Amino acid sequence: MTAPTPALSLSSGLPSVLGVFAHPDDESLLAGGVLAQQAAAGARTAVVTATWDPDSLRASELTEALAVLGAGAPRMLGYGDARNETSAPGRPRWCDVDLDEAVAQVVFHIRQLRPAVVITHDALGQLTGHPDHRRTHQVVLLAVEAAGLAQLWPEAGAPWQTGALYAATHPHSGIGELGPLLRGVGKRLLSVPDEYVTATVDVTPWLDQKWAAIRSHGSQLTGERPLPALLSRLDEQSRSRILAVEYFTGHNFTPVSVGPEGSGEKREAR
């Protein structure tokens, strides 16, 4: 029997939510509405960001965005962006870093924050398939499981088993106006079958916060290709239609449990 994945409820806050994303602005674009909603409901929220130097402009923008979303101070791993060699001078690119090293760092933050739910990128690396997004998905999948096993990285703290992982994604039917926007600047579109989506969240009540957080990433509001810049050039109604819904695929990490009196009945993690 497979245990159901805990729902991303809008009616009440989860005890704690941790987002793990590749770049500054991913948190606002992909899950800004859910993070703002959960913080408003009293949940403890936090974000780990894999790339960019903690002393960079992008870091100060991230600080502002997280303050808008109620997600605390940045937790930056400081690796290089695969597509920007100035992002973290002297550090390896996130997509090249040793896998054990990457997983251990995320395990540390999971054990420190003890989240009920972790949110990250999907396996496709979102619509454009950025290699840092795909790497983050792979690392977080491993880290969520490893964080619950005391034998792995005991120096990272006491084990903690997060209940569920939610991968931010886009279903085929949910592309809408975002499709022409991205195709217009030569970006590809990688969406998932609709049945892959297990949580569809209308974040309209938190749309102003979400857009304010996106706008906090001021360096991304100019240029031809950054998504914040593309969104900023739209009229408010079009932009709101694109940002008002967040999609996720849930993965349950509830530990396996044996039924009463050794009956052999088990609840299996998905």
* Structural classification: alpha/beta
- Poorly predicted runs of 5 or more residues: 256-270
DSSP strand count: 9
What is the number of helical segments per DSSP (H or I, 4+ residues)?
A: 8
> Which strands sit side by side, in order, in the main sheet?
3-2-1-4-5-7-6
Distance between the termini: 10 Å
Described by strand count, sense and barrel closure, the largest sheet is: 7 strands, mixed
Strand percentage lies at: 15-25%
- Mean residue pLDDT: 91
Principal-axis shape: globular
- Radius of gyration computed on alpha carbons: 18 Å
One letter per element, helices H and strands E, the order comes to EHEHEHEHEHEHHHEEE
Q: Residue share in helices?
A: 25-40%
Assembly form of the protein: single chain
Structure description:
- The protein is α/β, with parallel strands linked by helices and 270 residues long.
- The protein is 33% helix and 17% strand.
- It is built from eight helices and nine strands.
- It has helices at residues 26-40, 57-69, 99-113, 131-146, 178-183, 207-216, 227-232, 236-243, and strands spanning 16-21, 44-51, 75-79, 117-121, 164-169, 199-202, 245-252, 257-258, 266-267.
- The strands form two sheets. The protein has a seven-stranded mixed β-sheet with strand order 3-2-1-4-5-7-6, with helices on both faces. A two-stranded antiparallel sheet has the order 8-9.
- A hairpin with a 7-residue loop joins strand 8 and strand 9.
- Helix 1 crosses helix 6, helix 2 (57-69) packs antiparallel against helix 6 (207-216) and helix 3 packs across helix 4 (131-146).
